[in-house]
Design goal:
The complex is a heterotrimer of chains A (320), B (286) and C (311). Chain A is an alpha/beta fold and 320 residues long. Chain A contains 12 helices and 12 strands. Chain A has an 8-stranded mixed beta sheet, with helices on both faces. A 4-stranded antiparallel beta sheet of chain A has the order 2-1-4-5, covered by helices on one side. Chain B is mainly alpha-helical and 286 residues long. Chain C is globular and about 85 Å long. The termini of chain C are close together. Classes of the chains: A alpha/beta (320), B mainly alpha (286), C mainly alpha (311). Chains in contact: A-C, B-C. Chains B and C meet through α5, α8, α9 and α10 of B and α1, α6, α7, α10 and α11 of C.
């Protein structure tokens, strides 16, 4: 039994301008201790997918309308609130994109980490505080005792993000979901955080789902990659295969557009066109207006996700 | 700071919005009605508001006297109408007066900066730290109670709000390159400020005026209730309640109707002000 | 933090001086000769002159100014011009009534306003929210003294549940006399506090750290009352501080409505009697309250939001 099984997940957004199928039939699974990267442009639905895993999506405009999410065999979508709360922060934990707004400004960092511990492990105040300091040390924060007594605004962005990671790991979760953990940070700090995540993956054996739009970030960090476009899962492959031999035209375009230092061309390569507006998706394959391999069938029917060997799957009529 | 001005194309948007939102439309209609009635009240009052008649004193509402009579036999309805004229004129004149001085001072403060700014801002902040009624009482105490005193007192209380409004807008505009260009071209500072700042603050100014008219009406009522505004026998809504206090047991009608009128007027202007604010700039903080 | 407190207190000094100066000049503009006002129109010129001499009204302006400042700072307000009783004595009698009224109204405002506001934010667009909106609208438009009059008409005159005049004697009687005036001011304050709490909480509930709390498995009630509300109360506290002053000035009219003794009554009767010293004292004390409340509000905010003290 996998740690996490997502099957045909559908998250819809009900907006003034119409229905947005933010996540439209996404399926993947994750084994315990393995790591998965979810890659795609802004607005492709990767954050929604991540939030859905803990039912954290904002409920008035958004809703999980279909599919299932099974964590350790239990259906997250159907479970009652009490069970969900027992899971959150405890067996599944999340770290978020913007460390400047993720922490509550009126409580100390230590209090916020300790809260998780007291909630799920029923530790006393002192024991919980010690655990908080221990976690801060784990994530490489110098002088963790002082930092635990500090308020978020007294810390730098990098430190805050480490604290958020410490908070997520406080109860030894089986699954850590990292939603663009480095996007809001400086490049040098980014590298440090990624190094931290790598070390944690190796030392703790936590399952990791890493969401990012930056291909460079996932190369060293994950075992498998899922590529999303406009709410759909277009390719799913082990990381090395994805980089070495991408199958879907969108993935190929993405990889081609990553500049490298030994490039000889003068112009950056881009994918023609833009992502269509969320409420007005094209018929058939959603990538078809921008695809160089487009055929008649692409404009009419959505391609199914098929197994293309070597543990990979892709959704493209050119491969079926 | 918003720089939405009311451009001509927006006027139809105003009407469209009003048409869509019934409560606001009612409020706006009420405001117009009140102002109109206040304007023509001397000509439509059924009785002379000052005419006393002990024979008909302390009556409740009837066919002849719609709102009843007070302790002196005066027709309450007529007094409410004329009182409305007094209260509304103070309530509208004071914010306008305040805006004239306030916007101007704020522009000077924002444009010149430095000590001028500090002086004006400090003074303005000090005024604002005082509750409006208290300021009004202080000024009325100093100047002696009268209609004019009430206008001045309320204008002073509202002054800082308008200073703030125009000061921040002026400061933002001051940094624009075209200002320096205009100065280099030899244009006087006055014309620059007027031509550029005024259109920019027009929207927030209208919202501010509308909301502060509501406050002004309320303040005027309180001041004349305390005996510090328009003096009897001139009726104003506030002093009608004051006079009515001594006879509440026998004749609560003057006080009740005058107070209801105040509430209605304040409500109407508040609704319009809120609606204008939602329409012109939802993030505006007056 | 201690540095911030010190700074704030020091800032008070020039403000106080400025205010006292304004009060001084305000009174000097007052129309009418205070001596004649005190002694009557038919007083003999010598008596008037003696009176003026006694009160130091003939001295040069700057001398009067400094003695006024000195008096104000040492809380020596002299004697009432009208009946020669000690103004300090009058103050001592009047102040407690005003303070009790103001405090009780504030407590009512907070106890009713904050929970009401929080609930209307959480159950947004429900029936409770609609009720809240009506309540707020009425609270903003109804003049507090009119509300008091209405309460008197219903609860005093028709139902005879509460007295309509004065402050009463003895604890229970005083409490009985306090009910209607306190409700008058308290309800208006509650409307304001409710609206402020509601908008503040709605704003905070959209923040990321609320999502973080939920993501940790924090029960929803804690999310709202521990994580969100504490942040939401920061602007509420500032607003409350400012509104406290409005309530304070509201006591002036409410005391008149209920014929209650208090600072407001003292001030207003002093104004109509042209009693210089009484008016002076009343204005100075009110001004003092204004400065104090502003200071306390700032300090309280710094205590709740640790970020402020570091600026």
């Amino acid at each position: 039994m996998s740690l996490l099984e997502v099957d045909q997940l559908q998250v819809h957004l009900f907006t003034n301008r119409g229905l947005v199928r933010a996540v439209d039939g996404v399926s993947f699974s994750l084994e315990a201790g393995r790591s998965l990267g979810i890659v795609g442009e802004s607005g492709c639905g990767k954050t929604m997918t991540a939030l859905a895993l803990m039912r954290l999506i904002p409920m008035p405009p958004a809703q999980i309308v279909g599919g299932s999410i099974r964590f350790d065999g239990e259906d997250v979508v159907a479970m009652d609130d009490a069970r969900l709360r027992a899971l959150r922060g405890n067996q599944i934990a999340m770290i978020y994109q913007d460390p400047m707004t993720t922490l509550n400004p009126v409580f100390t960092v230590g209090e916020q980490i300790a809260e998780s511990v007291r909630l799920h492990r029923h530790d006393g105040r002192h024991a919980a505080f010690l655990r908080a300091v221990e976690m801060l040390q784990l994530v490489g924060i110098p002088d963790p005792d002082r930092v635990a007594r500090a308020y978020p605004h007294q810390l730098s962005g990098g430190m805050r993000q480490r604290a958020v990671i410490a908070m997520a790991l406080a109860c030894d979760p089986k699954l850590l979901i990292a939603d663009e953990p480095t996007t809001a940070l400086d490049v040098t700090i980014q590298a440090q955080i990624l190094e931290l995540l790598r070390r944690l993956r190796d030392d703790l054996g936590t399952g990791i789902i890493l969401i990012t739009h930056d291909l460079g970030v996932i190369a060293d960090l994950v075992d498998e990659v899922v590529v999303m476009y406009a709410g759909k899962l277009v390719e799913h492959a082990p990381v090395r295969h994805l980089f070495a031999d991408p199958q879907h035209p969108y993935t190929q375009g993405l990889l081609r557009s990553v500049p490298s230092l030994d490039m000889r061309e003068h112009r950056l390569k881009t994918i023609d066109g833009t992502v269509p507006p969320a409420h007005a998706m094209p018929a058939g394959c959603r990538f078809n207006p921008r695809c160089s391999l487009v055929r008649e069938v692409c404009r009419e029917k959505e391609p199914p996700l098929v197994d293309i060997g070597q543990g990979s799957r892709a959704a493209c009529w050119a491969l079926a | 700071m918003s720089d939405i001005a009311i451009a001509p194309g927006r006027q139809s948007a105003v009407l469209t919005y009003l048409a869509g939102n019934k409560l606001t439309a009612m409020g706006a209609a009420l405001c117009c009605l009140l102002m109109f009635v206040a304007l023509i009240s001397p000509w439509i009052v059924p009785f002379d508001p000052l005419e006393q008649s002990f024979a008909t004193a302390n009556q409740g509402p009837s066919e002849v006297h719609w709102f009843g009579t007070d302790a002196f036999g005066r027709d309450v309805f007529s007094r409410v109408l004329i009182g409305g004229r007094v209260s509304l004129s103070i309530g509208i004149c004071a914010p306008i007066l305040s805006a004239l001085f306030g916007v101007w001072s704020g522009m000077i403060a924002g444009y010149f900066g430095g000590w001028t700014d500090r002086l004006i801002s400090r003074f303005s902040d000090l005024l604002m730290s005082f509750p409006s009624l208290l300021l009004g009482v202080m000024i009325a105490a100093a100047l002696g109670p009268s209609f004019q005193t009430a206008v001045i007192a309320i204008a002073v209380a509202l002054f800082p709000r308008f200073v703030r409004l125009s000061r921040s807008a002026t400061q933002v505009l001051r940094r624009e390159p075209f200002v320096d260009a205009s100065i280099a071209a030899g244009r006087g500072t006055l014309s620059i400020m007027l031509r550029h700042v005024l259109p920019n603050i027009a929207g927030p100014l209208v919202v501010a005026l509308s909301l502060w008219v509501a406050t002004a009406i309320r303040l005027e009522a309180a001041l004349s209730f305390l005996g510090l505004g328009a003096q009897p026998p001139t009726p104003s809504w506030g002093n009608m309640i004051r006079d009515g206090m001594s006879d509440l047991v026998g004749d609560p009608w003057p006080a009740a109707f005058a107070g209801a009128a105040i509430t209605l007027a304040v409500l109407a202007f508040n609704m319009v002000g809120d609606a204008l604010r939602d329409m012109l700039d939802p993030e505006l903080d007056t | 933090m201690a540095g911030y407190i010190l700074r704030r207190i020091l800032e008070v000094i020039p403000t106080v001086l400025l205010v006292l100066t304004l009060v001084f000049f305000a009174l000097r503009i007052m129309p009418g000769d205070p001596a004649i006002a005190a002694l009557g129109d038919f007083a003999a010129p010598e008596a008037v002159e003696a009176f003026r001499e006694k009160l130091g009204l003939n001295k040069p302006l700057y001398v009067q100014y400094f003695s006024f400042i000195g008096q104000a700072l040492t809380a020596d307000f002299g004697n009432s011009m009208n009946n020669n009783t000690s103004v300090n004595g009058l103050l001592a009698q009047a102040l407690p009534h005003t303070i009790v009224l103001g405090l009780t109204a504030t407590v009512i405002g907070i106890i009713v306003g904050i929970p009401f506001g929080a609930m209307t934010a959480v159950h947004r667009n429900g029936n409770l929210d609609g009720l809240g909106r009506v309540f707020a609208l009425i609270g903003f438009s109804l003049p507090e003294f009119y509300f008091g009059v209405l309460l008197i008409i219903v609860f005093s005159l028709h139902l005879d549940w509460f007295p309509m005049l004065g402050a009463g004697t003895g604890f229970v009687d005083q409490a009985h006399h306090l009910v209607l005036p306190a409700i008058t001011l308290g309800v208006v304050m509650a409307a304001f506090v409710m609206r402020l709490t509601r908008s503040s909480l709605l704003e905070v509930l959209r923040r990321d750290y609320v999502r973080t709390a939920r993501g940790k498995g924090v029960p929803e009630r804690w999310v709202i009352f521990k994580h969100a509300l504490r942040n939401a109360l920061i602007p509420v506290t500032t607003g409350l501080g400012i509104y406290l002053l409005t309530t304070l000035s509201g006591t002036i009219t409410v005391e008149l409505v209920f014929s209650r003794p208090g600072l407001g009554t003292m001030l207003i009767s002093g104004v109509s009697a042209r009693d210089y010293t009484v008016v002076q004292a009343g204005l100075v004390v009110f001004a003092f309250f204004v400065v104090c409340v502003n200071l306390l509000t700032d300090l309280l905010c710094a205590a709740i939001d640790p970020r402020i003290a570091l600026r």
